[in-house]
Amino acid sequence: MVRTRTPGTRERILSVAAKLFATHRFHEARMDDIAQEADVGKGTLYRYFQDKEALYHTLLDRAADELARRLDEADRSSTDPRVRIEAIVEMFLVLFDEQPHLFDLIQHAEVMHRPGRNFPWQRAREIAWRAVETLLAEGHRAGVWVCADPPLGTLMLLGGIRAVIRFGSPPRPSGLASRLTQMFLYGLR
Amino acid sequence: MVRTRTPGTRERILSVAAKLFATHRFHEARMDDIAQEADVGKGTLYRYFQDKEALYHTLLDRAADELARRLDEADRSSTDPRVRIEAIVEMFLVLFDEQPHLFDLIQHAEVMHRPGRNFPWQRAREIAWRAVETLLAEGHRAGVWVCADPPLGTLMLLGGIRAVIRFGSPPRPSGLASRLTQMFLYGLR
Question: Model's pTM, two decimal places?
Fold first, then answer.
């Protein structure tokens, strides 16, 4: 008998795993529970993912790909650097609200991460830093704003967005991306 | 024979535990290792702290007290709201640089935290939010700046400081607190 892998099964496993990892300590989230919740046998589960770390890695890797794709789209949405900043802020808020387990997944993965092993979300961070730094430097050169320290500006903006996502909760107040962008660009005035 | 508790022993245990918790997965950090590193017997260790969670709790609780004390000091350092903001930014940078394990400890504790149990660092967060929100509202009322949304401003500032601490490393560039404050107050100009 030939057993085939189907996208539906793989997606179901990933979706169950995301929820379980985000709500349990890593060593408490069991492959048995993932198999049961996803309604597959343990043999099937292990044919798709060799262990919990592989599942984790796949989840974060896919989220990183999605972030890279949407960031690029937001960054190309206008020629006006101010509009592009706001599109990026909006993209982050929407992405994390669409995937309510992503934030906790990243945080768990980081704490569980063994030094020396590849940490998949680091790639997403570096993509985001580079995009924002480049945009801040571009706006500075074009005279749209003054930003002598794009890396510092990038940390301020992305750290601020993170705190809003982390300590607020959906539904977000309307116009949040715009207010956040205004505050970043123009400060308290 | 009467065994007494000495502050030296307690401090030594806490210092060893902070380092071990920050660098190991929670379930991998063993009371045995803490006892050995701190050069005390296991019986002594358990007389001071009944388990790993008690140790963790004590470490974060002390850090929260220290943060509250220094925040209050920074907030009273001037009558000028701009100077007070910068004093608070500087205080955060110094506090976390002085305690290099604190950041990871908080992150580990949050991921390991069981819902419904008291999470000691939450108290520190609320104290910091309240202080910054109050200051932003005061400056707004006094006409020093325009801040229609102090809670959002607070998240932006504290999230930005967190990112700078998390993704930079000591020694910090000179004037960092001042540049961070300028960017927050005046934006990109």
Answer: 0.91
